[in-house]
Amino acid sequence: MEKKKWDLFALASIPLAMTLGNSMFIPVLPVIEKEIGISAFQSSLIITVYSIIAILLIPIAGYLSDRIGRKKVIIPSLIISAIGGIVSTWAAWRGEDPFMLILVGRFLQGAGAAGAFPVVIPTVGDMFKDEKEMSHSLGIIETSNTFGKVLSPIFGAVLAAWIWYLPFASVPVLSVISLLLILKFVKVPKDNEESKKKSIRDFIDEMKETFHHNGRWLTAVFIIGCLNMFILFSFLFHLSSLLEDDYDITGVVKGVVLAVPLLFLCISSYICGKKIGGKKTVMRSVILISNGGGAAALAFINKDLGLFLMILLLTITSIGIGLSLPCLDTLITAGIAKEERGTITSFYSSMRFLGVAAGPPVTALLLENNFNHIYLIFAALSMIAALLAFWAIKPEKKVEEVLAQS
């Protein structure tokens, strides 16, 4: 692993850049609304357009990465992301009626993101044969992703306080930095020539075979990943609104408060990835316990709870999610043959993106009901994730058989 530390550093820059390039817009949407005269619904499209196109294109990017190679997908994707950032920046800076052109830029940025971060996971899987090294490396990638979430509310608020359209301008800068690092340091294993020679029909038949033998635990991992991200972005959306509406906490201070549970999520992801190794039965137990613990914490949140206790319980939930994600990453990466790894992990990434995209609008609808019910629903979803892990993930029977075959 020491020999590949710079490869890993370069790859870890991608989730950091892509996460910052999207999540930092959430706390600055009200500023954008005022500057270009759009409604709250219109400003939400700045996030939604990015997410929808990414969800649709991630499986295509994963398939292409299996067929033509990981770097051949990542590099043009980062270039597209940078172009999207430039389009949005120019529209915000010089456009008289910039909203539609900003959305065009965000569409391009989402298309680029679809072929960047999701392809990182199978790339790491290709680089390491030892399961302990793979688990540790995926933990670092997940930590980089969550660290981007920690920084994003503060980063976005600071940039927007200086010049309101600077968050848009930061996107091409971040994308180009990642691009240069990938070009300089990343050396992935040689592409599998047999995989390239296979017809699409052969590839589809192999995918059907994979899901026939592993469909239960794969589907469970997909759903748990989606639920984890849905719960995370749902409570962040609600907490963001609560801080502003009930406690009059705004700007950078609000960003710092939002960063607290995310910081603990980041730390727990790193520790889990480093310590869990290749012990798949332990991973199953961690996923089960962490989601069950998160459910218990969420169930205690109610409208009479003070801000400190609420953030404490949300931090416990975040730690659970932080423990769960690296285990999911490793199970799905180590449990699938290299020739299909990009496609299968892309479905997983799409499900996680779906959770991110669905969380805020669903929470906004739920806010019309009683406050207690929202967190009881989140608790129920977290418990469903735990039960899925208990029922469907049987690594001693499923994942290890696939590893032996691959």
Explain how this protein is built.
The structure is a single chain. With 406 residues, the protein is mainly alpha-helical. The chain has a single domain (2-184, 193-405), classed as Growth Hormone, Chain: A (Up-down Bundle). Helices cover 84% and strands 0% of the residues. It has 16 helices and no strands. The chain has helices spanning 5-23, 29-36, 40-68, 71-94, 99-114, 117-127, 131-162, 166-185, 193-197, 200-245, 251-276, 280-299, 307-334, 338-366, 371-392, 399-405. Helix 3 (40-68) packs parallel to helix 5 (99-114) and helix 10 runs antiparallel to helix 13 (307-334). The radius of gyration is 20 Å and the shape is globular. The protein starts with a helix and ends with a helix. Residues 7-397 form the Major facilitator superfamily (MFS) profile domain. This is MFS transporter. It is a multi-pass membrane protein. Keywords: Cell membrane, Membrane, Transmembrane, Transmembrane helix, Transport. It is found in: Cell membrane.
What's the total number of strands? 0
Radius of gyration, in Å, reads: 20 Å
Q: What proportion of the residues form beta strands (DSSP E)?
A: under 5%
Distance between the termini: 21 Å
- Return the CATH architecture: Up-down Bundle
Structural class by sheet pairing and helices: mainly alpha
Largest sheet: none
Order of helices and strands: HHHHHHHHHHHHHHHH
Q: Which bin fits the share of residues in helices?
A: over 70%
| Number of helical elements | 16
**Which runs of at least 5 residues are low in confidence (pLDDT < 50)?**
397-406
Principal-axes geometry comes out as globular
